[in-house]
Amino acid sequence: MLHVADYIKYLQYEKRCSKHTLVAYKNDLDQFIQYMDEMVGDFNVNAITSKQIRGWVMALMDSGVNPRTVGRKISTLKSFFKYLMREDVVQSNPAQLVNTPKVAKKLPTYVREANLNQLLDLGLFPQNFEGKRDKLIISLLYGTGVRLAELKTLTTNHVDLNAYLIKVEGKRQKERIIPFPKEVKLLIEEYMILRKEINDENNFLFLTSKGEPVYDKLIYRVVNKHLSMVTTIKKKSPHVLRHSFATHLLNNGADLNAVKELLGHANLSATQIYTHTTFEKLKQVYKQAHPRS
Fold first, then answer.
1. Is 215 an active-site residue?
2. Helix or strand (DSSP H, E) at 178
3. Active site includes 274?
4. Residue 125: which H helix or E strand, with range?
5. What CATH architecture applies to the domain 2-97?
């Protein structure tokens, strides 16, 4: 459909959305169009009503789609019709009248400080190229809170060893500068010596043993393998280390706005979810310390 194609181009070139976001939005719209074709036999953006969108939402919920996913699909439609209004294709936004399903808030999964200290301090990584690389991957994910996509696109030029800083390109191509722990400098220097023997021409910081840039599944495997050595939590993904980074900073007194900037969140509300986790720690301290608790 022409309008959908134009909308995806708008997201890509004007809003600078990630490839993952573009795929998700297109899939949502294709799914809605298919539903409307089956229900009314013809998809016309000017004839869509709020009642029809609610019918689609109910069909999704009845089929067992997660409420969070349904909420994202509604947001996709709202954004799509907002774009169509801007382009004078439609006069109103029927999705604006559709409520998003309530989603139970889940506390972020994180690894305890003691477990991560055990992983990074007890010599659990081999002293070869892959061992040095894997330890550096874990250390940067936990030490800077970067996303997987930001980590794998780091280049050697993005690292300032003298200032203990890395430059990352986050969502919507927004750059931010993040400090890293001093111990990571030595890890980088040791890794770079072995990296030169693998491939000294490729500019990406993290490489496979064949000299190619690392990929998502490799990073997932590295994180899962090594977290399994020190924790029994079910979810062992790179994002868990991002959660751990934020939680541990707040637990140790970091300012919420500072953590927001380090994580690259657009809104403070995205960072505030970590305060629920730190509040649990405060409750434990209270129960242990207050004489009447």
1. no
2. strand 175-179
3. yes
4. none
5. Orthogonal Bundle (1.10)
